[in-house]
Predict the structure.
Amino acid sequence: MAKGRRTDFVPRASAPAGGMGINSNTLQRIQQMQDDMKRTQEELEHEIINVTAAGGAITIAVSGQQRIQSIKLDPALVDPNDIGMLEDTLVAAVNEAIVASQAHSAKRLEAVTGGVNIPGFM
């Protein structure tokens, strides 16, 4: 045995700088938050947000996970001589629906996280 070495030494996990470790209560809260976030994300898949655009001429149903479910058009909006206008209007309406869905999802997830920004979750 080398001089000055202890044979009975067992290293312990060190706490991060500042002496603050994660206790079991904190780990339980983190696990509960993860479970709640997963459940909320699954619920968002089935929540539908209805958005009207173009003065009510377009109605888009989008899920809380930004999946378009349906698009309804007022027949007066369809002009076979101006398909470009219809296409532009649809793009704007779909983008508006996605923004509304993202805002809805963010609000739901914020209720779970208490406003803590967690990477990978919206």
